Amino acid sequence: MLSRVANHIYWLARYLERAENTARLIQVNTHLLLDLPRDVTLGWEPIVDMLSFRETFYEHYDTADEKSVIKFVVTDQLNPGSIINCLANAKENARIIREIIPSEAWELINNLYATAKDDTQSVLTRRHRFECLDKIVAGNQTITGLMGGTMNRDVGYSFLRLGRHLERADMTTRIIDVRSASLLPDVSGNISAFENIQWMSVLKSLTAYQMYRQEMRLRISRADILEFLLKRDIFPRSICHSIKQLGKCAGELPKSHVLKEKVKEVSKALANLDTKDLKQDKLHAVIDDIQAALIKIHNVINETYF
Amino acid sequence: MAIRWGNYSPTPFYDELIRVRNKPRDAARDLCEYLKHLSDSEINEFKTASTTAIQVMGITFTVYSEEEGSIDRAWPFDIIPRIIPKHEWDQIEQGLKQRVKALNMFINDLYNEQNVLKDKVLPESILEHSKNYLPECQGIKPPHGIWAHICGSDLVRDENGTVYVLEDNLRVPSGVSYMLENRHVMKRVFPDMFDKYNILPVDDYPSQLYDMLSQMSPRTIHQPEIVVLTPGIYNSAYFEHAYLAQQMGAELVVGSDLEVDDDDIVYMRTVEGLARVDVIYRRIDDAFLDPEAFKEDSMLGVPGLMRAWKAGNVALVNAPGAGVADDKVVYAFVPDLIRYYLDEEPLIPNVPTYKCVNKEERDYVIENIEKMVVKPANESGGYGMLIGPHSTKAERQKFIRLIRRDPRNYVAQPMLLLSTAPTLIDTKVEPRHLDLRPFILSGKQTNVTMGGLTRVAMRKGSTVVNSSQGGGSKDTWIVDMEDK
User: Fold this and answer.
1) Taking CA atoms, which of A133, B125, B163, B309 is between 20 and 30 Å from B57?
2) What is the share, in percent, of chain B residues with pLDDT greater than 90?
């Protein structure tokens, strides 16, 4: 496989996954907002921080209110990480490698971008937001399913999964981080009804609620949820699962010695993590570490193959 | 009822489907009958279905405009097909094979013995001023003596129904992917008609192309490495490059994916390291192919490619220098070339062509310029042309100056009354002018596409069919009427 093509496949997967997870991230926050008592004011600014776009945001907006942040994160052409730009980049990458991916996948990607572009204005009102963001999530799920069901299991497919799982791991850490950032006062000592609701919304935004219940057979609890989302391979959006998949992909690729090493390091760190022990500050630090490790893995992929 | 054939009058032109008012040609009878019974809303439904299919399939071409830069546009597609009976097509196919065979013999001769000049069939001055003649190619004998492996010849029909070759495209002819995709669109939106007619399929083109490309491999190995070399996503035909690579399962590469080492072998950069390339179906013009040999500042090409080709280590399709034969002045000599190389009469005539390089012909052209179509020798895409009857006085004056300054560079043809076919304009049918571009593949055997790409001038009265200038397309049906 051409290096350039592998690079495009990898980024195609990353942009699609990023669009989906950004949509999920906004869903968590919107859900939280509806469930919380009126006197707890929920900020939107942390969303901007979480996506690491603080500077760009304040170049174009004065205040981080709901409308501005949603606009910035979903529809703004000036934000390189906005959902619409992710989908546009996904489409451009797909267009360049359209002879590699199944033509039906190209049609879906092309279409997902076109519908999202038509839809994005309605995302500003809460009433239409769920539907609009759900379409983006469902769109990527469909594309993923189609590629899984029709693509040869060759190195191209390995690069696709490599991009997808690296991005998914990164974005899942960011979604968990919604809870540990300055969104809400630290209430971890006292499991209130609201705290339950908040964690439930995190699970739901990752389509993890049912799977959590089936696997953990427990009431909602912070430590168990963190255990489930960080350490359980059984759930396909958990950090552990994504990292394991990275290891598998590395095993399918040539010249992957260094890559395998790096993946192993993160796996080990995850395995040694005690989720009972994770207070807010520490959780945030752990998430920072995982994100830093993922960046390193990306750099190795970049140097080895592209 | 929306389509009233009684209101459709093709005169004074030859119409592909309608003989005279209310009288369809034999092959078009069932189609016209079917269309007659469609309601406005059904017609709109079909049009929407075809537009959606085109959008979803991402069939686009890129146009350049100064205001907007490069933009992707869906190519206008008309759902009423053009129909040609198979017995008529068989004649055309023979004529195209004859023509391309002679053209390949001509190019091979020109770069080797040059008998055609010695025997004074082609004046030497034509060659001296040819922009597409590459001295670098002298003495090269590519496999099977083939230089123009893929040829797209444009056919037109005049008011009497005679088919002419308007020009041959021997460099990087494009459009075949639209021919293939148009058929897919028609099958999606018009499945009923495929029961009524025995429509000959077009979709084996990619396999034939693949077979021809493999035959050109310098290494006799089971699966030679074949790549399609594209200038990149901003090229107007990029959709086609990607499409053909996909259909053949070949790698689509840009110049920077390839390198030529000191061993004069072409390699591509892969995730596993360097891999040898055997055949390059290049969709880049000669001048940009190799910055070592031609334009030094070409970012699209591969340094050393010509070295590798001359050493016989890689096949280039079409071969560099093949464009010498699609010069519009050389075109005027093609009937003579067919007689010279094959000792046969041309089966498909040329459009009568005045060569401005000859004084008498030049004077005639200048005197009658308002009746002529004047073409520069080496432009494509309909650029730099003068269409006399539609021109202003200032434009005609400008062309007279251009012809006088560089007569070798211009030919002129009488304004042909191009044939028409019924085309849907809103929900009514109106005649629109069209041409036909079949594609001819030359390898160990020669294959002609079943029909080709029909291009339609969508503007009323216009004869400019190029996609870059407001043209559209139709599906082309070669129908076998024998078993009816």
Assistant:
1) A133
2) 67
